[in-house]
Hints:
2 copies of one chain form a homodimer.
Chain A: H1 15-18, H2 26-50, H3 57-63, H4 68-72, H5 78-91, H6 94-99, H7 105-115, H8 123-137, H9 142-165, H10 175-195, H11 205-217
Helix pairs in contact in A: 2-3, 2-5, 2-8, 7-9, 7-11, 9-10
Amino acid sequence: MSLSSRAVPAFDDGDAxxxxxxxxxxxxxxxxxxxxxxxxxxxxxxxGDRGFQAASVAEIARGADTTADAVYxxxxxxxxxxxxxxxxxxxxxxxxxxxxxxxxxxxKLAMLGDSLLTAQRxxxxxxxxxxxxxxxxxxxxxxxxxxxxxxxxxxxxxIVEDAKNAGDIDEDLSTTAIVFLCQALGLxxxxxxxxxxxxxxxxxxxxxxxxVGRLIRGLAPRx
Amino acid sequence: MSLSSRAVPAFDDGDAxxxxxxxxxxxxxxxxxxxxxxxxxxxxxxxGDRGFQAASVAEIARGADTTADAVYxxxxxxxxxxxxxxxxxxxxxxxxxxxxxxxxxxxKLAMLGDSLLTAQRxxxxxxxxxxxxxxxxxxxxxxxxxxxxxxxxxxxxxIVEDAKNAGDIDEDLSTTAIVFLCQALGLxxxxxxxxxxxxxxxxxxxxxxxxVGRLIRGLAPRx
Lengths: 223, 223
């Protein structure tokens, strides 16, 4: 199991826990939120690595240096914990950083393309794929995932529309088609790269970046 | 559960089964292979729809109008049945039809792109995704999947090289990068389309086809 890149706070020495609710202080609030954060990090790693079915609440609690009771004090069951962890994953998406970067819209698309080979190779991408495969099989899973995909789609749409307004992407091209390509690549590139035993068929970063740049320039209005 | 589009042969009346090995005839051989085919079809649908963990051998047998004994007579366990079903899925891939089509290489790439929205929306795509998600989590799953992805990569590479030789794709572009894009889209488009609750963000077939055509033309050598 890969560990989150976030630093795990030192485990509480226990005194604060024994001091009772009347002594509840800022420190306790901080500890409580630190435990919740560790549990979410562990849930993201564990669900992403092992899948929803195989992951257990006990395992997730162990990964956060705490017990299953700490999970059930916050979430009613494994499904609720998954939903909370997935919302956290959505909050950490690369696109949130890219969309506000002070660069032209086509540069944002290029950054998004470049990130497929590197930055998204983390446990948050595994969680997206786990949420998608569950949603493929069970309609109950679809609303939360679908809403997140819709939010992402709107964000990419805005970038594409900006690029069209700047005259860098042909108005004739369907924004929906471009967004669909971006979202499909976001999930598919991770799935392919993680599934390959050898890296023989994985492009070098420079080659990929040049190729993505050419793809984007190919969408410019024809003179 | 969606049923395979293949016609399911009429269930054997049982007489042939009771006639004993000494009366084994061409008819029996045919029946035997028909049962095996029904089991593989049912395995592809069931594994694809419910995933490896949740799918049971009994359920797969029921879907083929037979019993678990018929499965264990042919495969030692659920894993072996999955491997056989996945090999069947690999044999049915769209690319096998497209690569031998009597059209220019760039038209083959366009056909591959067009097929992402329609033809591949079947249970065989679900099986690919199931195999990928399992392989992400467990190295034991990687060899079979990885070999199949490698075979697919070689086939797409040949098409891309043909297009380069025909002067339709720029020699400067990395074949590996183009192949990676194709494979990522093949899996990712299915994952996104199946996960969306609404079809608001799914492109119309015409728009998609025009966009794919523009993407491919954008890869032509610059004059």
